[in-house]
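Appendix B. One record, verbatim.
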Amino acid sequence: MSQIPVLEGYRPNVGVMVVNHRGEVLMGERTDVPGVWQMPQGGIDEGETPLQTCLRELVEETGITQDKVELIGEFPQWLAYVVPTHLKAKIIQNKVGQLQKWFLLRYKPNDLPTPPQDGEIEFTAFKWVPLEEIAKDVIYFRKAIYEELAVYFANKI
């Protein structure tokens, strides 16, 4: 299991790439920024492993439970990105950016999950996207990471 590295000023976080049986990637439209789509992600809580965070965030943000997915792999390194100053208060407060460990999961059902309607709602809708298009509608400061993930996970899907 991945040990959580410390990078001064960066919040430890995980990202979750969920693929279906056709190799398409689950993307959610952000509740707070209509028209911007992203994969589930979230901060690592004290005492959690990155994989535990991955499965917790998946349920919280998509309603997908552990029994509906299988772990295919994980990105070998931690990836960091800087959050623009005008968005920091909303996303990470006093941090520079996020340091992420990414996991690749296969979604077993053939349907599209329905966004949860309780708790803090992250996404208003979901769609399946071809792997090579995952960076198309993501917010600009995450594009490079999404492009890197697409290249790395292409032969694992």
